[in-house]
Design a protein that fits this description.
This protein has about 400 residues and is of the alpha/beta class. It is built from 15 helices and eleven strands.
């Protein structure tokens, strides 16, 4: 099946008794019992299908996890409470019984870097960084550090560089490292990293997958060889999403391909429009013919779509001028997230990359005049009109 069809049908319509619900119900229960205790014992031993305790599995979350695995082309998925919990679970999985060392892309979501440097680093995990768009540099660091795993985003946040993850994966495997890809920005509509040899794929399900700004969630997707380890870790650590959030996520995913196509089209139009705006200094968009990674984008992404994100620098603006621009927006929502049906504006310096020192942000190219737009599904003319009036203030 094509992803458009999988998004609508995968995971749903499991038989219950002599009837089949058209959509998966919310199983709001912490535990399950059977007429015979022997059957519960067999469920826990995984001898028969069933559920015993919702930390081990719940019918609603199981349906969502089947859907997530099918979308990414994996064999198993874990739906977690947030994207950060999914990244944490992936890192622990990749470092179990191996050297505690991570090679991370230089520019990532700020909290991912904070997790590595402030949480895992002090526990004895060696953390190193390299530029994934410079394959020579990346391979040199791989050879020197010999990490157990590599963590990167196909589309970096917020500068929207596109990493050649197929080539990085080949290099990482040659040096004995597993590869974790945060596919939140691209989604499986644009890119399925497991098909490129990536080991573990994570998402902030809060963003594009759910798509409506009404839940927190994350996802980890992997192939069969990881099942036993990830199952043990999930049951022990308990990062599981609740059944109501799982239901909302599943409902949102049904329109994912439609939403992504419209958001990508809007972002492409907006990026070209911003490049011609007198108040805009620079535009970052993976589909821009002048983007440094345009050939990588064209090679990796499906359907000639380049994502729904556009970052840009406002000319002659500092923090106060950016604040004034954000406050002047009338339709675009100035909130610290992305991927919703409505357009969103974020200021990385005070949100996604707030925990990084100003000099560190500057070295990464995240300047105080940089903002990030998540294009929604509104009429593109209305999005541009709102940007125009706010930029002219």
């Amino acid at each position: 099946m094509k992803i458009d069809t999988l998004a609508v049908h995968a995971g749903d319509r499991k038989k219950l008794g002599n009837y089949v619900p058209s959509t998966t119900p919310v199983y709001g229960t912490s535990s399950f019992f059977y007429e015979r205790t022997e059957d519960l014992d067999r469920v826990f031993n995984e001898e028969i299908e069933g559920h015993g305790y919702s930390r081990y599995g719940n019918p609603t979350t199981a349906a969502l996890e089947e859907l997530l695995a099918r979308l990414e082309g994996g064999d198993l998925a874990v739906a977690t409470t947030s994207g950060m919990s999914a990244i944490h679970l992936a890192l622990i999985s990749a470092m179990t019984d191996r050297r505690r060392s991570v090679l991370c892309a230089k520019v990532m979501y700020g909290q991912s870097i904070t997790l590595l440097t402030n949480i895992l680093g002090p526990t004895g995990v060696d953390i190193s960084f390299a530029e994934p768009c410079d394959l020579d540099e990346f391979e040199q660091v791989l050879a020197k550090e010999k990490p157990s795993c590599v963590l990167l985003e196909p589309v970096s946040n917020p500068l929207l560089r596109v990493a050649p993850i197929d080539r990085i994966t080949t290099l990482a495997h040659e040096h004995g490292a597993s590869v974790i890809v945060d596919n939140t920005f691209a989604t499986p509509v644009l890119l399925r990293p497991l098909e490129l040899g990536v080991d573990l794929v994570v998402h902030s399900m809060t963003k594009y997958l759910a798509g409506h700004g009404d839940l927190m969630g994350g996802a980890l997707v992997a192939c069969e060889e990881w099942r036993q380890l990830i199952t043990v870790l999930t049951r022990t650590l308990g990062p599981n999403i609740g059944p109501f959030e799982a239901y909302l996520a599943m409902r949102g995913i049904k329109t994912l391909p439609l939403r992504i196509e419209r958001q990508c089209q809007n972002a492409c139009h907006i990026a070209a429009w911003l490049k011609a705006h007198p108040r805009v200094k620079r535009v970052y968009f993976p589909g821009d013919p002048e983007h440094p990674d345009i050939e990588t984008s064209r090679r990796l992404f499906r359907r000639d779509l380049f994502g729904g994100m556009v970052s840009f620098e406002i000319k002659d603006a500092g923090r106060q001028e950016v604040f004034a621009f954000m406050d002047a927006l009338r339709m675009i929502v100035p909130a610290t997230t992305l991927g919703d049906v409505h357009s969103l504006m974020l200021y990385p310096a005070i949100s996604s990359h707030r925990d990084l020192a100003p000099k560190h942000r500057e070295r990464l190219g995240i300047r105080d005049n940089l903002v990030r737009l998540s294009a929604g599904i509104e009429a593109v003319e209305d999005i541009e009109a709102d940007l125009d009036q706010a930029l002219k203030r």
